[in-house]
Amino acid sequence: MPRSVNSVASRARRKKLLKLAKGYWGKRKNVLTIAKHTIDKGLGYAYRDRKTKKRNFRSLWIVRINAGARLHGYSYSQFMDLVHKKGLGLNRKVLADMAMNHPETFEAIVKSVK
Q1: FRET partner for 67 with CA separation of 20 to 30 A, picked from 39, 41, 50, 56?
Q2: Which residues contact 112 (CB under 8 A, 6 or more apart)?
């Protein structure tokens, strides 16, 4: 009985990997084993950095809120404590945007939580 190798599926698998490696430089884009290692590494970095991105944005928001709050005589922690005690439904992303782009609105929020 002849050996069955299912070359259609094998080629499809290889094409899928090489399609993911499109745009890489040198052998990384057209040598299967090297492309496979590069893709695995890249996908691992992508997974890791989707988490890191959230951390980075949160710290950026905190810096911006802190800068806005200090203009009105509060530290970040004091201001956020007042916001939480007042029960405002504003998250750090919105507060940071207001502190950066709409300082008069942020000033109104600071006055409302005093």
Answers
A1: 50
A2: 86, 88
